[in-house]
Amino acid sequence: MTELVAEFALVVEGRELGGDVSRGASDNATSGVLFGAEGAQQRHDGKWWQSESDTWDLLARLYEQRQQRRDVAMDDNMDASTDDDATLSDFVRAQDLLERDGQLAEYVEVRRWLEDTAREFQPVETRKGYLFYTRRSIRTQDTADSNAMSDNTQLVTDIDPDASSRQRRDIAIEDHEYTTSLLRTLFEYVRRGRMSDAMALCVESDEPWRAASMKGGLFWRDPQLEDAESTDRVGGNINRNLWKHACAALAHDTGNDSYERALYAALSGRVDEVLTVCVTWNDFVWAHVNAVIEMRMDHGLRGACVYEQAPATSFAHVQSRRTCATDMAQVFDIVESLDGCVQNEARDPLRRLQRALATNTFAEYVEEFAQALSPETDVRMVRVVAHASLCVRQSGAELPEPAVSAVLEAYVDRLARDHDELVAAYVAQMPTERQTHVYAQFVQMLNVSRDHRMQLLQRAERHGLDTHAVCRAATSAGVQPDDLLDSSDPSDSSDPSDQFELSEPSEPITNTEQRQVRALEWTTSSSHLYPYALAQVCTLSRHFLLRGRTNAATVLLNSLPADFV
């Protein structure tokens, strides 16, 4: 497999196999369009390669994790549950939950992938001095004549985070613009899993209370309840559940900035306010996956605890209005039901593949893809699905062999046009009963030099193919007179006795006869195949002579090796 990937990398470096073929994502998509059929909207090559790179990243993350879980079998005597152990800290219980719940661990990995592959954004610059312009306006107003008219009478008179809501007054326009940009940057940091960057920005901008409000999501841990080497001090939030309800209340408050609401909604696992600032497919999926993770973490950590948790009954009014998804499949169903560009992006062939990987339904995806294969299917998707199938199968997952074989055959058909040196490596990945037929069909159609043919046989042997069986099948298919005669043949007649005319020795042979003669090169390449080759020579010679094609028979006999008879 490693050699296969190395050979393929040499080919794809700098160019795409099969040229630039368009892929489909139209609203009225058929099954072929859903897998990238020609005639749909063209996408820029750079965007395609980036999306494909993201797909491979997701596959590597998930299947490495799944393979590790298969390799490291869980001890049957392991405690079935430790979340009811009141002597454990929340941090330890959360770690144990992720180890026991493989599906939840995958959801966390998908969220990380969505965070790492999010589009780039421009963060706000750091600015020292909290509400600098508001503070300066207040000082100016204080020194002015108390009877004089001032344009700043609607500004707050105190400088604290709650002054604006408490006094129902505004802050300076410059400060308002900066605060809006700051809140957006904080959300974008959280959206990308960069919580430390978000808190650092708050501190550097002289707004440390924002960092403190965001830090409440850390799980509580205590060195007296954990291993001595894991931590040396108490940390995290012992009332994390209460903190999440407070975040939900901030998100629910319509008086707050939209990005501030989205920020605290994301921290508390809500989707209502996060969706209002989502733009791309990636954003929407992240919002729902984040909510599913928080919901399952809360459910998994519910139970006995070493401390009494603070009540959160006063936050009942901030319950989410939307019905949240409960698993990954529902997440993608919800996103695909959205209107506009997000729905179109969800129909993108690579997005559909990413869904199959994230929901662990790749086997069903391959079957559907194989059924939808057609000559118009985008060669890039055939390449991606073929290699994804090989990677997934190598990781130990079971895939429908007929479907994988169909995809590999479609890919081999495209490779044969420009990169025949790679065909043997992919045919070797097919079921044994298909290898001989597929490779023989490939080689017998090639019109290349004898040396090049021998090189293809050497490659086939190196990849473990039965070269003798391939040669016999290729020769048998190549010398078939009824199948390969072309309309220009003088011997093309339903009854050879109706038209019998001896050809002149100097008369050139037809292209069909040339292909038939050269088909014997496969079985005359090895002395072990001479007995089979002799039978084919006799059959083809008789066929030529019965039609008066003595010139073709002469060329055939002259093409045989010196030690043949």
Keywords summarizing the entry:
565 residues; 0% strand
Describe this structure in words.
- The chain contains 28 helices and no strands.
- By secondary structure, the chain is mainly alpha-helical.
- It starts with a helix and ends in a 7-residue tail after the last helix.
- Residues 10-16, 18-31, 37-41, 75-80, 145-149 and 483-494 have low confidence and may be disordered.
Write a brief caption for the model.
With 565 residues, the protein is mostly helical. Helix content is 57%, strand content 0%.
From N to C, what is the helix and strand string? Answer: HHHHHHHHHHHHHHHHHHHHHHHHHHHH
Instruction: Based on Cα principal axes, name the global outline.
Output: elongated
Number of DSSP strand runs: 0
Largest β sheet strand count, sense and barrel closure: none
Number of helix segments? 28
Report the uncertain regions: 10-16, 18-31, 37-41, 75-80, 145-149, 483-494
Strand fraction equals: under 5%
Alpha-beta classification = mainly alpha
Tell me the Rg in angstroms. 35 Å
Calculate the mean pLDDT score and round it: 83
Q: Helix fraction?
A: 55-70%
Rounded to the nearest angstrom, the distance between the terminal CA atoms is: 42 Å
